[in-house]
Specification:
Structural class: alpha/beta
CATH class of the largest domain: Alpha Beta
Shape: globular
Strand order of the largest sheet: 3-2-1-4-5-6
Number of helices: 10
Number of strands: 6
CATH architecture of the largest domain: 3-Layer(aba) Sandwich
Distance between the termini: 22 Å
Largest sheet: 6 strands, parallel
Radius of gyration: 17 Å
Length: 225
Amino acid sequence: MLKTILLDVDGTLIDSNDAHARAWVDALEEAGFEPHYVSIRKRIGMGGDHLLPNVTGVDIEEEEGKAISKRRGEIFRSKYLPKLKAFPQTRELLLRLKEEGHPMVIATSASKKDLQALLEQAGLADLDIDATTADDADASKPEPDIIFAALEKAGVKAEDAVMLGDTPYDVAAAEKAGVPTIGFTCGGWMKDDLKPAIAVYEGPMDLLMNLEESPLAAGTKRKAS
């Protein structure tokens, strides 16, 4: 029985994946690295604790790693955040889910500070959705820590939840926690990249338009065709 919907934010509710990638590129260039945008972009969705060592070999807990991560956040919030918007019909989807009695918990690799700024910029902060962030986990996606934290906050078991996400890292984290995923391609990934999602939609508007035939209505765990 579906009791809780877990929500990714970047690339799922808000069109921000490109902005995050560009902020990382800017911060790494300032630090003397020569990052490739495509390499960074395909890693957006995993947390900085995975992304930074993956592309530079620098641990985010080292002084250099902390400095780069901090600078990335500053660049993101000052240069890119003011231009961001929610995907079409995101607010309407969330309101519809609330109206139908679906409890929701955000499960994001973003920091609490970045999440709040994102929700405010996208006009979603007033929906007052419970959240778990990178601050609540030892390791970010694709590790399942954030998913487990969200389940604990919701007070439900994995089999009673479903995840909405847009990256393979969302799917992997949820799968490790035993939670099925409904995938969105609006974040830049293809349908085949999101296996084994139980269903895949173009984004919030597509899911909203097809909500009555979706796993959220049926409560089933069918695989995407």
